Amino acid sequence: MLILGIETATPQVSCALGGHEGVLGLFELARGRRHAELLTPAIEFVCRQADVTLGEIGSIAVDVGPGLFTGMRVGIATAKAMAQALRVPVIPVTSLDLLALPLRYADRLIGAVIDARRGEVYHAFYRQVPGGVQRLDGPALGSVDDLVADLVAMGEEALLVGDGALRHREQISAATRRVDFAEQWLAYPSAAPLVQLAHARALREDWVQPAEVHPQYLRKPDAEINWTTRESAR
């Protein structure tokens, strides 16, 4: 089964095609935050270069967050619309799972951390298991101090990945010396591991219908927060 992966939950726009042969084509761009403008042409480009027609796609995988509100909506709306048009199911995956998967060979605790702005981060912890990683908790939303407190409480060597870890690297490193940080090129979730994760789930028919796909926000959109703040200040 061919799977189209759509990833727009962070500043990076990414899409990929893959299946039992692995990832056949991949597009990534992490500059400009023009998710709505870039996504459809990117999908067309990857399909054309891989010599795949939309009719050959058997399911669509999409990152449902947590992450940027606008980006998530673009990716999820596109995935749902395409799945309905093609009459194929959808495989929703969380952004933190996608960050953790490329580190599945790490021999220590893995922490996936996404910048949530406002001094907060989305995070979850993982351990290596045969064939992948297993999430231990979360996804959670909290301050950087909350993340550090969790790391200290676990008392283990940890490898952190994600733009949230890199943005707050100095603060985290000052609080605990038992952490290391993954490379910058792993800072954002990618559609490549999305297709990999989705393929394993597709073999089990672990999917949903388009109407059942919902974003994982964890907190209210900034516009709603700002409106509530203004109202309470009156």
Tell me the Rg in angstroms.
18 Å
Strand content: 25-35%
Query: Uncertain runs with pLDDT below 50, 5 residues or more?
Result: 225-233
Report the count of strand segments.
11
Whole-number average pLDDT?
93
Structural write-up:
With 234 residues, the protein is α/β, with parallel strands linked by helices. It folds into two domains: 128 residues, ATPase, nucleotide binding domain (Nucleotidyltransferase, domain 5), CATH 3.30.420; 91 residues, Nucleotidyltransferase, domain 5, CATH 3.30.420.40. The chain contains eight helices and eleven strands. Strands 6, 7, 8, 9, 10 and 11 form a six-stranded mixed β-sheet that branches. A five-stranded mixed β-sheet has the order 3-2-1-4-5, with helices on both faces. Strand 6 and strand 7 form a beta hairpin.
Can you give keywords for this protein?
alpha/beta; Nucleotidyltransferase, domain 5; 5-stranded mixed beta sheet; 234 residues; disordered C terminus
Question: Summary?
Answer:
The chain has about 230 residues and is α/β, with parallel strands linked by helices. Helix content is about 35%, strand content about 30%.
Topology summary:
Layout: E1 2-7, E2 13-19, E3 22-29, H1 35-49, E4 57-63, H2 69-86, E5 90-93, H3 95-100, E6 109-117, E7 120-129, E8 132-135, E9 140-143, H4 144-154, E10 158-161, H5 163-167, H6 169-175, E11 179-181, H7 191-203, H8 222-233
Parallel strand pairs: 1-4, 4-5, 6-10, 10-11
Antiparallel strand pairs: 1-2, 2-3, 6-7, 7-8, 7-9
Helix pairs in contact: 1-2
